[in-house]
Amino acid sequence: MINKLCIVGLGLIGGSVGLAARKKHLARAVVGLVRRRESIAEARRRGVADRATMDAEEAVGGSEMVIIATPLGVMERIATTIRPFLSEGCIVTDVGSSKRCVVGPMEKIFHPRAHFVGVHPIAGSEQSGMRAAREDLFEGTPCILTPTRKTDRNALKRVRDLWKNLGSSVSLMSPDDHDRIVAAISHLPHLLAVALVNCLARMPGDVRKILSCAGTGFKDSTRIAASPAGMWVDICLANRDEILRALKTHQSELASVVKALKRGDAARLKDILIRARKLRKRMM
Amino acid sequence: MINKLCIVGLGLIGGSVGLAARKKHLARAVVGLVRRRESIAEARRRGVADRATMDAEEAVGGSEMVIIATPLGVMERIATTIRPFLSEGCIVTDVGSSKRCVVGPMEKIFHPRAHFVGVHPIAGSEQSGMRAAREDLFEGTPCILTPTRKTDRNALKRVRDLWKNLGSSVSLMSPDDHDRIVAAISHLPHLLAVALVNCLARMPGDVRKILSCAGTGFKDSTRIAASPAGMWVDICLANRDEILRALKTHQSELASVVKALKRGDAARLKDILIRARKLRKRMM
User: Fold this and answer.
1) In this predicted model, what pLDDT tens digit does every residue of B137-186 receive, in sequence order?
2) What pLDDT score does B127 carry?
3) Is CATH 3.40.50.2300 the right assignment for the domain spanning A177-281?
């Protein structure tokens, strides 16, 4: 049980942590730090926190654990703002989709007063904001923790326990491994989906008619393209090198498909499709 | 009401047509033409046809409408096999995912004895076979009819009525427009998903660990890669030129993403993501 849990930012992820933590009694008090006055009443109404405030000292002071659940682009500023108010030995953690660019700077900012643990819950949807928060958002979803040599073992254990209790399936890896894997399973698919959707606008003919032909296949493979743009700009720029690398691998995989297609090489094409099918079925 | 409806091939699509046609009383008799002896009993058990047979004459003879629901690769052979047994003025239609390569040859094969109407229901899933058939498979899904100057107007109306009654939202376009649009909304996304999945096998590290990090985003955008390989080889080769063209458009869209990414041009990247988001939201 966490004595006082502070969540900085009560959007889809922060709000869902708050809902689940309260429902599951994972903390004695859940306090939200918000940016806008309207969010204070909304947080109460939606039950995502016991109370919310715009005052960093009030939110953070005396907290045993602080979860920074803001977009990547503002994390450093927030970290610097809250640092003076952290209790000695406090655990600070995050939910950012890119880890190398977060973990190093955060460890520097919080050391030695507080213990930082990098976390990336692979949850969420194309929706965003407190309104989209759900107490079951993390049930059965992957959650990656990215400890380093500097990570406090007790802090790591506490954060791990929290995410397990939130329903996630936790795994540990280095920030580098995280960024490489997530580029391939999240960031690259996102950019491919964006390009797929934008292709439709470039086709001759009425775009409405084209959209009306889309079946569940297209809808499923491009759903992520409806995600908030600003958040994804941050993510893509933060993990740019790994995304460009993943893109290269994808281009080379695609090149063998195209080669088989151009040659009309049915056997080769079938090999490629079977390989993908087998691998994809392992995820079911 | 169709007097006798013959469905050639009782897989996911053919079987689902049979289930729905029987349930909705769209035909006095639904007869399936199957390739394997086991399918005769299975068809009865699953209720996808009133009866099934391996005898083309028995299945097709006296039918008012024949739906060829086999993979693209065997359609011409099937068409030639059933032609001698068709009643004068019979309506023949299909469910193929590519239309230019189907409609011309089929019109030639069946003219003047029977009237051919090209159809592509944009339904289905990564599953296949009679076991996956569902009577509600077509509810709310797009269905494209591809009449030509040679298409009999009454046959077109009958086929259109059938698909409306099956629950589809029917639209009409030329085989060329169909192939171009479907390359962009179905075939290209398929190949991108295949390449995405195959990328994972090329990454360093345990592929199981990588797979375990995949969230719903990756799962949704690659679900189609679990589809039957053989069927998709047929589809891709049949619509090869349009797929290669769609791929070029996609590469050029992706190139502007990559350019913005490499330059760290957040504003440009945001523009691109917002454009995709707006378009994708129109599909919701």
Assistant:
1) 999 999 999 999 999 999 999 999 999 999 999 999 999 999 999 999 99
2) 86
3) no
What amino acid occupies position B26? L
pTM: 0.91
Beta strands in chain A (DSSP E): 2-8, 27-33, 51-53, 65-68, 91-94, 115-117, 119-121, 142-145, 169-172
A2-173: which CATH topology? Rossmann fold (3.40.50)
Token pair belonging to A107 = 């460890």
Of chain A residues 190-219, which have a CB less than 8 A from chain B? 190-203, 205, 207-219
Distance CA A13, CA A76 (A): 18
Q: Do A184 and B165 meet the contact criterion of CB atoms below 8 Å apart?
A: no
The residues, ordered by sequence, that sit 6+ positions from A74 with a Cβ below 8 Å of its Cβ are: none
- Cα B278 to Cα A121: distance, rounded to the nearest angstrom: 26
Complete DSSP assignment for B193-247: HHHHHHHHHTSSS-HHHHHHT--HHHHHHHGGGGS-HHHHHHHHHHTHHHHHHHH
Among A197, A250, A275, the strongest candidate for a mutation testing the B interface, having the largest count of B CBs within 10 A, is: A197
Q: Which of A193, A208, A220 sits opposite B223 (nearest CB)?
A: A220
pLDDT band at A126 (very low <50, low <70, confident <90, very high): confident
Q: For A276, phi and psi rounded to 5 degrees?
A: -65, -40
Please name the member of B177, B220, B244 whose beta carbon is closest to the beta carbon of A261: B244
Q: What is the mean pLDDT of residues B258-284?
A: 96
Summarised one tens digit per residue, pLDDT across range A219-260 is 999 999 999 999 999 999 999 999 999 999 999 999 999 999
Angle between helices B240-263 and A188-202 (to 10 degrees): 120
Query: Contact at 8 Å (CB) between B260 and B268?
Result: yes
Average pLDDT over residues A27-42: 97
CA of B198 vs chain A CAs: smallest distance (Å): 5
Indicate the domain borders of chain A. 2-173, 177-281
Q: What is the β-pairing status of strands A169-172 and A142-145? A: parallel
Q: What is the pLDDT of residue B124?
A: 80
The label of the residue with tokens 């035909």 reads B27
Q: What is the mean pLDDT of chain B?
A: 96
